[in-house]
Amino acid sequence: MKVAKGKGAAPRRDNKKEALKPVEDSKLGKRKAAVKPNKSTKKVAKKDEVAKKDPNKPKRPPSAFFVFLEEFRKVYKEEHPNVKAVSAVGKAGGEKWKSMSKAEKVPYETKAAKRKLDYEKLMTAYNKKQETAAEEEDDDVGDGESEKSKSEVSHEEEEETAEDDDDEDDDDEDDD
DNA sequence: CCAATGATTGTTTAA
DNA sequence: TTAAACAATCATTGG
C-alpha cells in the first residue's frame, strides 16, 4: 500500500447541477479550490513522503477567459483601485465575459490557442526530461546534492514569445 | 510568517 | 463523454 495520507478526497468543486446537467447553467455556486501540495513551509522542497514536485512541469495554458481576465483585471483595477477581493474582478470579469459576443472572444481564443500550442511544446520538453529522469529513477531525497549528469538538456527554457502580430486578420467574422 | 481562500470560466486530463 | 481539478490574481485571514 502506500496510501497517500494527506490527500484523500478531492474536494473542489461541489456543485450540484453540473453533475446532473453538464450544460452551462450559469448557476455557479462557489466552487472552491482545495489543493494541498505538500506539507507546510513552502520552500521546504523536501519530500518526506512522496512529493512529486516537478519544477519543470508546465502549467495549464490559460483559457480565453483567463487571457481576457488578465487584461480585464488591469482595467478593473484602474476603475476600482480600492477593490479588495480577487473575487470582485472574477465576478465582474465573468459577467462581462458572458456579455461579450463570440466574435469578441475570438481574439482571446486565438491567443489562448497559441498559448496551448506552447503548452504542448513545453509538455514535450517536459516529457523528455521525465524520460531522462526515469533512467536513473533515483530517489533523491534529503541530501539532494546529486547533480546527476546534467548533460545539456537543450536550452528549451520558455521565453520565446512569437510576436507576430500582423496576420491576425484572418478572422472570419461569424456574425450571429 | 506563510499558506490557503475566495470567484470567475475555460481547458486539460484521466477514467 | 463526464466529472473533476486546476489555471491567475491578490488582499485578507487563520494557524
Question: What is the topology?
Answer:
Layout: H1 17-20, H2 64-79, H3 86-99, H4 102-136
The protein binds a DNA duplex (15 and 15 nucleotides) through helix 2, helix 3 and helix 4.
Task: Tell me about this structure.
Helix 2 crosses helix 3 (86-99) and helix 2 (64-79) crosses helix 4 (102-136). The longest helix is centred in the C-terminal third of the chain and has 35 residues, at 102-136. With 176 residues, the chain is mostly helical. It contains 4 helices and no strands. The chain binds a DNA duplex (15 and 15 nucleotides) through helix 2, helix 3 and helix 4.
Question: Any descriptors?
Answer:
disordered N terminus, 0% strand, DNA-binding, mainly alpha, disordered C terminus
**What structural class should be given to the helix and strand makeup?**
mainly alpha
Mean pLDDT: 63
Percent of residues in beta strands? under 5%
User: Main sheet, how many strands, which sense, barrel?
Assistant: none
List the secondary-structure elements in sequence, H or E: HHHH
Tell me the number of strands.
0
Helix content class: 25-40%
Low-confidence stretches: 2-34, 36-49, 139-151, 168-176
**Count of helical segments?**
4
Shape: elongated
Distance between the termini: 56 Å
Rg, rounded, reads: 21 Å
Brief summary:
By secondary structure, this protein is an all-alpha fold. Helices cover about 40% and strands about 0% of the residues. It contains four helices and no strands.
